[in-house]
Amino acid sequence: MEANPDNYENCVYYFNKDNNLFFRYDTELVGGKFCLPSAKAMEDVGEKVVEEFQGEFNKFFGDSGIMVYVQDIINTKEVLFYSLATAFVVGFIYMIVLRVAGGPIIYLSILMIILSCAGGGYMLFEKSQ
Fold it and tell me: What distance in Å separates the CA atoms of residue 47 and residue 31, rounded to the nearest whole number?
C-alpha cells in the first residue's frame, strides 16, 4: 500500500474511493489520530501475527544485519571494559609524566632537532670537500 493520507477515512484504507475498493480489518481509533488493530480482531490470528512479525524482524535484523554486530559487542564486553580501563589508566600516567617532565622533554626535543640538523649539515659539508 502506498502512504497516501487522502485514501484513509475512519480507519479504513481505500485503494480506489470511486469504486469503493478498500482494505479493512477491525481497527479502533487510538488517541484521535492512529488506527490500530483491535483486540477482538487479533484474538484469532494473534499468535500468527507475532510469529510473522518476529520472522520479518529476524529477516531484517537477523543473521546479516545489525544484531550480529550487537551480539559481537555483547560477546566481547569484558575485553572492551578492560581496554577502556587500561586506556584510562595509561592516559592518567601520561598526563602525570607530561606534568612532571614536560619541560625537559620539550627542551631535549628542540636540542636534538638542532643537533641533528647541525650533524647533517656537517656531513654534507664533508662530502662536498
Answer: 26
d(CA 96, CA 92): 6
Residue 76 burial (CB count, 10 A): 11
> Measured between alpha carbons, how far is 101 from 112 in angstroms, rounded to an integer?
16
Q: Which pTM value belongs to this model?
A: 0.38
- Indicate the domain borders of the chain: 1-37, 85-128
CB atoms within 10 A of CB 110: 10
Which residue's C-alpha cell is 626535543? 109
pLDDT digits 0-9 by tens, 5-56: 555 556 666 656 565 655 556 677 777 767 777 776 666 666 776 777 777 7
Name the helix (H) or strand (E) containing 41: helix 39-61
Residue bearing cell 489520530: 33
* Cα distance from N-terminal residue to C-terminal residue, the chain: 87
Strands (E) in the chain, as ranges, are 8-9, 12-16, 21-23, 27-30, 34-37
